[in-house]
Every structure is written in C-alpha cells, then in structure tokens.
C-alpha cells in the first residue's frame, strides 16, 4: 500500500516537473521571440522616422529663401498674377503641393493655385499658428486640415522681410498623402501622433484624427480656434497599454507590439505596431514541431515496448503454471485487501463515534461554563434577600433575577449557534447599556475575585446595530475570560480589569483588558477555534470566543486579541456605528 502511494507521488512529482519545465520553456521562448521582434521593430521604426523627418525637412528652407526675393514680393503686391505664376514654377520644381504669400493681415495675395477653383487668393489664414509664429518668431510650422481644400498637410512659413515691420508671410504646404503614401501595404500599422496625442498620419485611414488619450477642454478650444482638424470629432482610438518591457497595446480588441520614436518636430511621435499574433505564430510553430517530434519519440518508444512485450509473451508461453500460481496469489491478495478495507471502514466508523462522544462532552462542559455565572449570580442575589430587606430592595433583586433568567434562556439559544441560525433580531443598541447588562451578571464574580474594576466611557450614547443579548453575551464572555486569567496571578500581583468604550473612524471600539499572564503563542494560533480551551478538561467552554467572533463578524465587525506591553491581555471589539450617529 505504501509502495503504491510512493509510486503515485513520484508520478505526480514527475508530471508537475514536466509541466513546470514546459511553462518555463514557453516563457523563455516568448521572451526570446519578443526580444527578437523588438530588435526588428527598433530598426524599422528608425527607418520610418528618418524618412519622415527628411520629407518634413525637405521644404523647411523654401519659405526663407523666397522671403529674400524682394522682387517677388513687389510683384505680389502690384502684379499678383505674375507673382502667382512664379510661385507655381517654384512649387513644381520643389515638388511642394502649395506655395502662397499672405499680407500682414493674413489675406492671401498670391498663390501657386491662383488659377484653380479652390484658389487660396483672397482667403485669410491669419488664424493659423504658422502665420502668427512667422510674424512673431520669424518662422513657423503646423499640421492641420486645409481650411480651403479640406486636405490635411504640413505647413512651414517665414516672414518678409526678415527684419523690420512685417509686410507679408510666405507659406509652403505639403499634403499629408505625400508624408504617409509609402506606409500602406506594410505588415505593420504605422501612425504619427501630435503633442496632444491625436493621430495625424496613419497607414490605416480609419485611425486618422483619433485621440490616444483624453483631450482637455483647453486643448479642444485651442484646436477649434486654429481650425486644425475641421469638423473631425477626435473620438478616442481605444488604445490600452499593458506593459511588459516591449510595450503591449490593445486597439479595437487586437493586441500589438508597439515601438515608438520621437520624430524631432512639433512634439510628434512615430508609432510602429506589429500584431502580437506574429509572436504567437512563432510560438505555435515551435510547439507544433516540438509536439510532432515528441509524438514520433513516443511512437518509437511504444514500438520498442510492443516488441519487448511480444518477446516476453513468447517466452512466457512455456511458463503457464507460474502464471496460474501468480493468479491465485493475486486473488488471495485481493481478498486480503478487501478485508483490510473493511477493517479500515470499521475503524473509521468507531473513530467518528468516539469523536461525537468527545464533542458531546465538550458541549456539556460549555453549557456548564455558559450557565454557571448567571446561576452563581442568582444564588448571590437570593442570599441577599433577608427577611428584613426592604420592599424596594426585594423589587430590585427580583428584577435582576428576572433579567438573569432571561439571559440564561438566551444563552441556551446561543449554544445552538453552530447547529442552526437562531433568533438574530437586530436593533439599535447603546453599548453603554451593554456594559451595564454584562456587569449585572459578572459583578458578584468580580467582587469575589478581588478584582479592581475600571470603566472608561464617554457620557454620550454609543449606538450600533446589533442584538442586545448577543452583544451582552460577547462582553460577558470577555469579562469571564479575563477573571479566569487573573486567577493565575500570584497574591502580590494586583488584579485589574479595564473596560474601555470609545469611537474611532465610524466604529465603536469596546476594549477589555486584564492584568493576567497574557496569551501564549500557542493559544494565539487556536484562540478562536470552537472547543479550544487552555483550562483543564471540564472547566471552560471552548466556545465563548468562537461564538463571540461569529456574532461580531455577522455585524460586519471584528474581534481581535493582543498582549499588553505591561502584561496581561487585551481584547478589542470593533462594530460599525449607526450612520445617524
């Protein structure tokens, strides 16, 4: 039997080892393929970045060069059509899309498309940042959707003259199609975002003018004033980052491996995204090959085993008598095993019966422990009723006796806590009244034990939502435990019991402290377990703290214990205060 268990354990360990090795191998391969893909993407993103930067920079010089041509600007003001023709020839030679000259107020006076239907001549572009920056700083650049053509593009500008009062501004526009025309058909998704996180160039047209992050109201107002994106809503692209070194992002339910690079102009950033399925395909390919090789190896092993089995069967044909003897031995072993199993079942039945009897004994001790204090208190109160006691004293004593009888009834109901849910009426309870009720039951025991009682509480009610009897039972349990603990004190050591009631962060905090020996390390581990007690057999319930803990837990509170620095134990009950309090 033990050998069988050891064999199963070894098989389980072997299986777990193989599984762990496969997981580690998968993680290693995944990291390797991610690293390889990251290196490839870094190379590709640099190619795209340098190409785009070169395209953007190709025409940066042109507005400044034109602004040095005084004759051109004289024609622009006096003979605008001739100036426009010159601009068209320059545009054609430079491969720009548009070149135009604006007066100091932003009105276009000459343009390379002066003879087209969508001519810029007469249009005022003073609201564009590239105009205002050229006026203020000498030059400017900008990306936006054309106010006239509705075609997006990159604008670069320069003022005329370079010094002195501004008379005009020259602007060159390169359409966005020129910037990203070579991106389509790539195995990756490529796009550029501006300083506000808005996609301005993309290999996927549906991603254009989508935002990577929330746009502030101030940013939207600035975009509106500049008419940068026309009527585009700038809806979120839905990009979600998930990290992992090489940045993993999700866009529209598709995972990508993202590499980014700063283009070096206007806060633009280039994003190069390859579907994560590329790495997954590499992993699938590797594991497919590994599985095929493993299956071939298993098939070879099975073939070898079949050959060996065939040889063994051939050799065993002459040993039939030994096999019959082995069968008889096996049958005998089976019979013995069944007998052992029957004996084991009988032993288990006997053990359960013994456990039940033990539990009944513990429960009897618990009942004695739970009802002993109220009965002792009743005996003390009855003894105090003498023949010459006043009617008022008799009435008070009878009231206390009635309260104790009702408490004993409630306690017997509480002892059924773990068997079924009893009456759990919840109402407003003032913990000041709870303290007084608990002391009515325990005051005789406190006095008999020569214990100094200290109660610290505010004059204001501390109300919680609870069952009054159940809360009182919790406090009685804690007080009795404290009294029992202090019985171990030597005569010279004072016995001091402190009950403290306060509020803290919307919670009522009820603390019971004693000057006993404290809680041992072993007891702390089993403190709240049912039927666990540090007292001798038959003394102490072993249920008080377990029941108290569950009562407080039902009130969404907590019961904890700790040792005091100066010696003794401290039990802390925390219960939520009523919201109205």
TrEMBL record:
Chain coiled-coil ranges: 313-357
GO molecular function, one term: ATP binding
EC number of the protein: 2.7.13.3
Keyword Transmembrane helix recorded: yes
An example Gene Ontology CC term for this record: plasma membrane
Cell compartment(s), UniProt: Cell membrane
Entries under SUPFAM superfamilies matching the protein: ATPase domain of HSP90 chaperone/DNA topoisomerase II/histidine kinase (SSF55874), Homodimeric domain of signal transducing histidine kinase (SSF47384), Sensory domain-like (SSF103190)
Signal peptide positions on this chain: none
Histidine kinase domain ranges (all copies): 366-579
Stated name of the protein: histidine kinase
